[in-house]
Specification:
Largest sheet: 6 strands, antiparallel
Helix content: 55-70%
Number of helices: 11
Number of domains: 2
Structural class: alpha+beta
Strand order of the largest sheet: 1-2-3-4-5-6
Distance between the termini: 20 Å
Radius of gyration: 25 Å
Number of strands: 6
Order of helices and strands: HHHHHEEEEEEHHHHHH
Strand content: 15-25%
Length: 353
Amino acid sequence: MRKLDHYVMRTVGGAMLLVMLVVLSLDLIFAFIAELEDARNDYQTLQALLYVFMTLPRRIYDYLPLGAFMGCLVGLGAMASASELTVIRAAGVSIRRIVWSAMKPTLAFVLVGVLIGEYVAPPAERMAQSQKAVALGAGQNIALASGIWHREGDTFIHLNAVQPNGVLYGVSLFRYGEDRWLASATFAERAIYQGDHWVLQTVTTTRLSEQGTELETAIQQRWDSGLSPDVLSVLIVKPENLSMSGLFTYASYLDQQGLRSATYWLAFWKKTLMPLGTAVMVLVAISFIFGPLRSVTMGFRVFTGLIVGLLFKYMQDLLGPMSLVFGFNPILAILLPIAISAVAGFTLMRRAG
């Protein structure tokens, strides 16, 4: 029986790796082509290739649920087409044991995904984004399209690039008065963190009043801010590309500042429940093999798997923004597609049994 368990595990695990290899290869090719469209200044072909390589951990994390789902569908589907599942069941192996054997490589995938998403992908993504912004000329342009915005009190802050070592490029500070009119606009080429404050370098400040405008320049200028490099390292990447600990920390910080944090809580719950969602999708794939897709061609299985996987993804992508607009708990937007898939999987498995 152990040999049969290992055989199912090897077949399913190998199919998952093959699916990941194919999907990632295509994604990297298209990503590199897309990056070449941004080539300018110091950001050329070699830098674009390096950027794509540094974002590889994030791409692996993004495609792990799809790889596990499609790999299980392909692996078990190939065994069903070769009548191997029929032979295994005739040998006295229950469907429950086959399901558990197929779930073991899924659990390994989930564990790898959690480790990558928590410890590898976020720092690699931060470094990739900051290096790209600097290569595009972050210190020379007042506002890059790839920069980030933040509000602190009556000041709106725009940063072109944030490096992990506590150096900012292209810092723009827009301060507003009590009458909500722009009082001053400051631009600094760089800012360096000094423990409890920032030092702006090559600073230009424009002050606006009823009497007119006044222009000031300075080589250095102190900037007191509650933003630290740890907080800014969270801001530089999209919420869905942050670690769970980083999302929790920054969402709590936004709550303390009285700012909207629902987007980060949504990303936090999506990452937290990713293992459960992956396991449920694999259960759905197994139920398909023992149910409606038992005797169809491999191409039809792949097509069906893509449709089901996209429906699951789009359902979460649709309910997530709905939770932000209508104000219901973001965790419900993540749990509802998982619950629907789990009910469908268990129902099909009971019929197959």
